[in-house]
Amino acid sequence: MAVKPLEDRILVRPLEAKDMTASGIYLPESAKEKPMKGTVVAMGPGKLLDNGERVIPSVKSGDTVVYSKYAGTEVEIKNESHLIIRESELLGIVE
Fold first, then answer.
1. What's the domain count of the chain?
2. What helix, strand, coil percent values describe the chain, rounded to 5?
3. Domain hosting residue 33, numbered range
4. Which residues contact 54 (CB under 8 A, 6 or more apart)?
5. What global pTM score does this model have?
């Protein structure tokens, strides 16, 4: 199953949460923080303006992005967790 986001939405695969703290303590599943970074998998054609023009997305497939903790909608594709996020909910691109 392939998912093609519409308009200004972006499909992001969240990066895995860390299993261990910096000091070497292993974290149980319930204590892990929800990841706020992910990799762009696909994006829509861009937002449609009132004059009929499209705004080209500022991200591309393969970019690592940062988003807010509760942004987007979680979906499961091929047994992997993904997020569908509006481009305006992205906070930045990791370089």
1. 1
2. 5, 40, 50
3. 9-94
4. 45, 46, 47, 48
5. 0.77
